[in-house]
Design a protein that fits this description.
This protein has 176 residues and is α/β, with parallel strands linked by helices. The chain has 5 helices and 7 strands; from the N terminus they run βαββαβαββαβα. Strands 1, 2, 3, 4, 5, 6 and 7 form a 7-stranded parallel beta sheet that branches. 39% of the residues are buried.
Length: 176
């Protein structure tokens, strides 16, 4: 079991996100629980490329301060929505024999959706803790509507188990 913290980068981890306070609280709890239970925490960063605001070298590219990686925790960089494509993450997890990924981070309707579906496609058991992913409003749906659509309709029972953060923490503490 590993905890993935996807794209929780300074530029886009802002109070414009749906249910921002609950998101931050839950991700911090999950990171803390993982570390306490020797579950690896792996960070993913998205790079939009040279000249973009979200690119390597820009301050906003780094992991959000409240979720900051501890010494030795791995960070994989990606240039597409899926963290499993050409980042080294997939081979790393397969080489370690990992079978379960807990997915948290940003944004529900972009990289979290791709992360959940691609993890499923690659044979992982996927856990999506409640209110540990979020997004902003888009032209079609509010952040809340996007959150509910993916977490409660698209993923749960198809690609992942969408469960409470408390139940995820129980799995993290009882499973190790």
């Amino acid at each position: 079991m590993v905890l993935l913290v996807v794209d929780a980068q300074k530029l886009i981890t802002t109070d414009k996100l749906y249910n921002f306070e609950a998101f931050c609280h839950n991700v911090k709890r999950l990171i803390h629980t993982a570390r306490q239970n020797r579950i690896e925490v792996i960070y993913i960063r998205h790079d939009d490329g040279a000249g973009q605001a979200l690119t390597k070298g820009a301050d906003g590219y780094e992991i959000y301060d409240e979720f900051k990686p501890a010494d030795g925790e791995k960070i994989f960089d990606k240039t597409v929505n899926s963290p499993f494509k050409d980042s080294g993450l997939l081979s790393y997890l397969k080489d370690k024999g990992e079978t379960t990924v807990i997915i948290t981070g940003l944004q529900t309707d972009y990289c979290i959706d791709a992360s959940v579906k691609c993890a499923f496609e690659h044979g992982f058991d996927v856990i999506v803790p409640a209110f540990a992913n979020t997004t902003v409003d888009n032209p079609f749906l509010s952040g809340e509507e996007s959150y509910n659509y993916y977490n409660n309709f698209i993923w749960n029972g198809r690609y992942a188990k969408s469960i409470s953060t408390d139940d995820t923490i129980k799995l993290m503490t009882n499973g190790n």
